[in-house]
Write a structure and sequence with these properties.
This protein has about 160 residues and is an alpha/beta fold. The protein is built from 5 helices and 5 strands, in the order E-H-E-H-E-H-E-H-E-H. The chain has a 5-stranded parallel beta sheet with strand order 2-1-3-4-5. Strand 3, helix 3 and strand 4 form a beta-alpha-beta unit.
């Protein structure tokens, strides 16, 4: 399986999960870089508001072409029960290429809004993913291996 792990991460949690998935799959990685400043209290507040409004943002032009892979994993933290503007923008830009691929979703969050965020991502992509993995930071550490194995099995089936 030639796989690409694409992710956005503001504080490193989703990046850590993306690193683990890429290692498991021997996949290439693409970090989505949001060119809008998401730091500090104003960055935080506008981040939540932009996610809630399903706004797009400016991202650094991606380096890898998803057309060159047969499987693409798309990852994001949950913001305001939604996906991040950075991942939303990537999917909008790459929609045609992604449509031809086996796609999986992964998300990290603090414990609320997962169903809503997943629905928003599925609606945006326009189809159900081959597999999805949702990890609540910290408290689910004990279940991580079990969830990861189930995700991998589904993705490879
Ligand atoms: C602006 C903002 C909004 C957030 N909204 C939610 C939320 O609705 N539900 C939730 O469970 N966690 C929420 N979080 C927490 C993040 O989803 C969580 O900390 C995530 O693992 C961070 O990933 P990262 O380190 O890759 O940026 C929010 C975080 C930020 C910065």
């Amino acid at each position: 399986m030639k796989a690409l792990v694409v992710y956005y991460s503001r504080t490193g949690t989703t990046k850590a999960l993306a690193d683990t998935l890429a290692k498991e799959l021997g996949a290439d990685m693409e970090e989505i870089v949001d060119l809008k400043n998401r730091r500090g209290i104003f960055g935080f507040l506008s981040a939540g508001y932009s996610a809630y409004r399903k706004s797009l943002t400016n991202i650094k032009p991606p380096e890898k072409d998803p057309s060159a892979y047969d499987t693409v994993l798309l990852g994001t933290p949950i913001w305001a029960s939604n996906i991040t503007p950075a991942l939303r923008t990537y999917i909008v830009q790459k929609k045609d290429a992604l449509k031809q691929k086996k796609v999986a979703f992964f998300m990290t969050y603090s414990g609320t809004g997962m169903e809503k965020a997943m629905k928003s991502l599925t609606d945006l992509y326009g189809a159900l993913p081959a597999a999805s993995l949702e990890i609540v930071k910290g408290i689910e550490a004990g279940k991580f291996k079990e969830k990861l194995d189930a995700f991998m099995a589904k993705l490879k089936s």
